[in-house]
Amino acid sequence: MRYKIETERVDLFDTNILITMEVSLKAEVPMALLEAAFKKAVASHEVLNSKIIIEPSGEAYYVDNDSPRSFISETSLTLSELINENERKRFRIEEGEFIRAFVCAENIVFMMHHIAGDGKSLLYFIETFMKCLSGEDVEYQAFRSLGLKDLPAESKMPLFYRVYTKSVNRKWERVKRVFTFGDLEQAYAKFWGGRRTKVELKRYGREELASLLASAKSAGVSLTSYIITDMIKDSGRKMDVGLAVDGRFDKNRSMGNQATGISVEYKYNVSKSFDENARAVQSLMKKKLDNDVYRYFVLQFMGLLDDTLKDAMNLERAEYFTSKASAGVAEALGYGKKVKDISITNLTRVDIPLVYGDYEISEIAFVPPIVAYGKNIYGIVTTGDVMTVARHIYE
């Protein structure tokens, strides 16, 4: 195994890149059974049996690893306490540590470094884990990602942006530096020295969720558009909203970062009804989702930037490194002071089974990381008749 890290390179040196899911089971399970299932599930996914290397040239790769470092253990900490403790503790991805799982009574908290995959990937790992727990056979899942060669031909960037990326790459070449995991270790210490995050969870039960869905349907919009409109209605200004988008062309269930993203800017119009505003928001979203240039723009753009420049942008944010070249592009791309007002990942209704033999998932909570280009991060997921909305922010 040797896969070059391309579009997901922006995750490599991000100092807050922990995807978290709390899975609630209907009953407690003996720890020995959970450990065995976890070990088998890890062995079933190629990316979890790899490690990350950085070449002297600055290129980075997933390579084979005979000793995976992902683990499961017991804990007495709450979800928020686990996030506070683990997001500041760097994953040893150079040694193959990609997932940490923690068991407390009926709850299992799964924490994954984004370089191992997106939110869907973690759901599919949980599916594999539950199948292993119930004694089912599982198929080996090869690693999948969205490299530049995998993107639709129609998504090619306009000439202006291709010229711009060449220009910033030339400027960076004059001061180019290849960063190491030692640099990342120091950046973590600096970034987390005076920071702490908090998570706010809101749970919508059967009746509340049904009411929300009915209101969205009545307005003629998706639930995501309806929720975004509700979030921005009292802002009084144009809001910049980023949305993570599943980029899987073939609906594969492999682990790997196969997400892309779009953004929309909109100011709530108080002279119009809520439903009219929701339809306007949805129209903006649809325009970008239906156009491959917009849908895959962020992947195309980031893929053309020099690898080490992407590292430098994250280290600018951590205040560990700065240069005129990297500071300029970091600010231009939203890695500086001006970031997205709201960033949302809605996994919608989970597309994994909830019942596995004698074991059943009753609820899932999803907490995305506070990525470098966002400040109000929302993770939404629906499990059966329950929807949870998590807001992740800095205190």
Itemize the secondary structure elements and their pairings.
Blueprint: E1 2-4, E2 18-25, H1 31-43, E3 50-54, E4 60-64, E5 71-74, H2 79-86, E6 99-104, E7 107-113, H3 119-133, H4 159-173, H5 181-191, E8 197-204, H6 206-219, H7 223-232, E9 239-246, E10 259-266, H8 274-289, H9 292-295, H10 297-304, H11 307-317, H12 324-332, E11 342-349, E12 355-356, E13 359-367, E14 377-383, E15 386-394
Helix pairs in contact: 1-3, 7-8, 11-12
Q: How large is the radius of gyration?
A: 21 Å
Helix content: 25-40%
Total helices: the number is: 12
Structural class: alpha+beta
Number of strands: 15
* Order of strands, widest sheet: 5-6-7-2-13-12
Q: Give the ordered list of helices and strands.
A: EEHEEEHEEHHHEHHEEHHHHHEEEEE
Shape: globular
Query: Strand fraction band?
Result: 15-25%
The main pleated sheet reads as: 6 strands, mixed
Average pLDDT level: 95
What is the distance, rounded to the nearest whole angstrom, between the alpha carbons of the first and last residues? 41 Å
Which spans have pLDDT < 50 for at least 5 consecutive residues? none
Q: What do you see in this structure?
A:
The radius of gyration is 21 Å and the shape is globular. With 395 residues, the protein is of the alpha+beta class. The chain has helices spanning 31-43, 79-86, 119-133, 159-173, 181-191, 206-219, 223-232, 274-289, 292-295, 297-304, 307-317, 324-332, and strands spanning 2-4, 18-25, 50-54, 60-64, 71-74, 99-104, 107-113, 197-204, 239-246, 259-266, 342-349, 355-356, 359-367, 377-383, 386-394. It starts with a strand and ends with a strand. It contains twelve helices and 15 strands. Helix 1 packs across helix 3, helix 7 crosses helix 8 and helix 11 packs across helix 12 (324-332). A six-stranded mixed sheet has the order 5-6-7-2-13-12, sandwiched between helices.
